[in-house]
Inverse folding.
């Protein structure tokens, strides 16, 4: 078999023929190879393995850059066509067709121009459309107005306002709603040209920027509503109903309980609304169309002014407990005392609820001391007396007896309590008597029997002196009065001067103003009925020696009991 050889791109090399063996052909080593004559021009020069690899890489690059052209089977060598193996190899090889580079470049240019044209048309259309409308991404007070004119935007905002409602969050997780419809809420844009300004300020030529960004315009149109209907809505709120309101109460001091200390009574927060503030806040929230009013956060409820942890309140309780834990004993005698303790003091505490301070109520303490005076004072009170003759009489007049200095006694009690010192104090007297018993004059006194014109001096119940005397002249209206008195003082050599007398007494012992005991050396007789027509100007005239003796016995404050 002879094989024709061709040069150029259509030649089939021996290596190609080898690789295109038909399926099932014997291995190359076992089958004899045909002798293919190779011309001198086609004789390849031997190359190193590295060189062959570089050539193969170069060939592969050329094949990728240039389109392959596969010739038909008619152009193949006859011998190769006649070979079944060669025919099968040619038939199974895929045929690829690639356009030229110039054609691809032209196609891309056409597509690019078309896209640019479409984009230009879209841009210009958008610029024209948004020249009188809000660009994409524009909202007013959170409401989208993209693509709307100013009037359309206003209408959109009105529609939103029609669906608006204000929720009131009340204490105790209670919620109530005031709807736009219930108060006929509407928007008035007359005094707000924000939308016009926003339209004028927007760059409609860059309208497409809004596709990737957001712009929110804040405006404040005038919110209008029916004020009468709003007032009705507020008045009807659950929080405003008296039956639903728990009044707020300040923390305070507990009531006094016998034997128990004072304690802090906790405050009551309640849910009593601040009506004026709540009304004002509701209108403010409506004005900006806020959707929720938290009455707790906005302090729409009255709060206690004084809470349990208030330092002044805690200190007040401590001070009040100090007062009631202090006991003052008022000692009138060994057997007669009065106790000032918590049962009395708790009622004397005067608390300033604003300043949270406490002090003793002086008026109440004075009332208490006045009661003590009524109990222990004997001055100007009737006195029972048994005469030397054994007659029991009642003496109504006179200024002898216990006389409490109420102001000073009150001050001593208050001082002791203010110092929180449990102590015993003695009352202060304007005038003292001998005893706090039934007979405050005791057993040492001067008894003056004006009817019989005789006096007696008793010391500790024993009569040490008796003497006749001459008392005040009844006929001239100088009658010596009866009653119980006390020696004011005593002195000697007392000159006594009157309209019709001027005398010197060696012993002078007054007991009832200007009336007193004194010697009368100008008289020669005493006793009997002399006083009826020739008596003194009211004094008790005594013989010199008797007056001298009496002077030695009496002291200031000693009782003098006069009776008829």
């Amino acid at each position: 078999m002879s094989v024709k050889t061709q040069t150029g791109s259509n030649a089939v090399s021996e290596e190609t023929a080898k690789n295109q063996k038909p399926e099932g052909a014997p291995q190359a080593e076992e089958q004899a190879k045909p002798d293919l004559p190779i011309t001198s021009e086609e004789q390849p020069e031997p190359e190193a393995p590295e060189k062959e690899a570089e050539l193969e890489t170069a060939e592969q690059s050329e094949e990728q850059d240039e389109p392959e052209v596969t010739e038909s089977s008619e152009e193949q060598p006859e011998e190769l066509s006649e070979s079944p193996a060669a025919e099968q190899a040619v038939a199974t090889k895929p045929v690829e067709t690639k356009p030229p580079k110039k054609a691809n470049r032209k196609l891309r240019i056409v597509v690019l121009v078309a896209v640019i044209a479409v984009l230009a048309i879209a841009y210009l259309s958008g610029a024209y459309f948004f020249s009188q409308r809000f660009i994409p991404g524009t909202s007013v007070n959170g409401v989208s107005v993209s693509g709307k004119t100013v009037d359309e935007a206003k209408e959109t905002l009105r529609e939103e306002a029609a669906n608006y409602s204000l929720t009131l969050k009340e204490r105790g997780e209670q919620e109530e709603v005031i709807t736009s419809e219930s108060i006929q809420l509407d928007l008035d844009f007359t005094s707000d040209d924000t939308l016009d300004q926003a339209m004028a300020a927007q760059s409609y030529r860059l309208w497409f920027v809004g596709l990737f960004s957001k712009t929110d315009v804040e405006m404040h149109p005038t919110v209008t509503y029916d004020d009468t209907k709003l007032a009705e809505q507020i008045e009807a709120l659950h929080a405003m109903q008296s039956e639903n309101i728990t009044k707020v109460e300040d923390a305070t001091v507990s009531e006094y309980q016998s034997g128990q200390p004072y304690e802090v009574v906790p405050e009551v927060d309640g849910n009593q609304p601040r009506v004026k503030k709540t009304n004002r806040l509701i209108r403010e929230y409506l004005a900006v169309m806020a959707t929720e009013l938290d009455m707790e956060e906005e302090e729409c409820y009255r709060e206690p002014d004084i809470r349990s942890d208030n330092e002044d309140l805690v200190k007040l309780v401590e001070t009040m407990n100090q007062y009631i834990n202090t006991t003052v004993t008022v000692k009138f005698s060994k057997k007669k005392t009065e106790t000032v303790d918590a049962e009395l003091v708790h009622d004397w505490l005067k608390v300033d609820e604003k300043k949270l301070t406490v002090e003793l109520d002086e008026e109440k303490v004075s009332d208490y001391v006045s009661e003590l005076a009524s109990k222990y004072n004997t001055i100007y009170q009737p006195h029972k007396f048994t005469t030397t003759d054994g007659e029991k009489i009642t003496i109504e007049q006179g200024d002898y007896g216990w006389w409490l200095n109420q102001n000073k006694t009150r001050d001593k009690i208050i001082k002791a309590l203010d110092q929180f010192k449990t102590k015993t104090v003695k009352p202060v007297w304007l005038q003292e008597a001998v005893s706090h018993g039934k007979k405050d004059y005791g057993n040492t006194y001067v008894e003056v029997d004006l009817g019989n014109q005789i006096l007696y001096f008793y010391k500790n119940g024993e009569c040490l002196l008796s003497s006749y005397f001459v008392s005040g002249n009844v006929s001239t209206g100088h009658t010596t009065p009866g009653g119980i008195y006390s020696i004011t003082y005593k002195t000697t050599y007392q000159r006594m001067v009157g309209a019709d007398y001027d005398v010197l007494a060696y012993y002078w012992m007054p007991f009832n103003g200007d009336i007193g005991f004194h010697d009368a050396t100008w008289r020669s007789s005493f006793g009997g009925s002399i006083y009826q027509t020739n008596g003194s100007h009211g004094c008790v005239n005594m013989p010199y020696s008797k007056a001298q003796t009496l002077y030695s016995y009496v002291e200031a404050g000693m009782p003098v009991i006069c009776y008829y």
